[in-house]
Predict the structure.
Amino acid sequence: MTFLSRRRVLSLTAATAAPLSLTRAAPAARPRGSSSDPGWSGDWPPPLREAVLRAMPAAVEYARAAAKWPYGAVLVDAETGAVVAGAGNTGESGDPTAHAETNLVREAVGGGFELSEHVVVTTAEPCPMCAGALVWGGVRGVAHGTSIAKLVGWGVPQIDVPADEIFRRVRGLSRPALARDVRADLTDPLYRGQ
């Protein structure tokens, strides 16, 4: 699998993470080029929203390290906002299930992380397989950059079922919060012209 080294994750985290405060403070400036209000649904307190926005560049780094298909995902601690793990797509290695999100779930579970205390920030909307894995893993939330609709429009092979449709059909399990089009200014260029 193609994972960035722990040292690289920690350096990206240090560069992008700021301590979360549970007290009310002046709103933080949004990163340049971000949507003024990505589609946030579910429980996304303002400090967690800011942590997600800061984490997307790390997910993009994982995507750029992927061999053929540039997908990347990071795990963000919902309490502290720190990026604690990350993975890229390695599906061309012969394992068609080795998408960034499933690789991340495997790494996180192997590392002993409690997924219900974390959110996943991913460069593209999770495919149905990955959305299902994230539900079964019990993640608190999923924030994605580029949508499946955009990927399909650009001719990128996809199963055209949005993650929110998968999440709406969840029965008897926790339904993750969903944030759409987060830092698409950073993620769309990964896929345009694929």
Summary: Residues 1-36 have pLDDT under 50 and may be disordered. Strands lie at 39-41, 72-77, 83-88, 118-124, 141-146, 177-180. The two ends are 22 Å apart (CA to CA). The chain has seven helices and six strands.
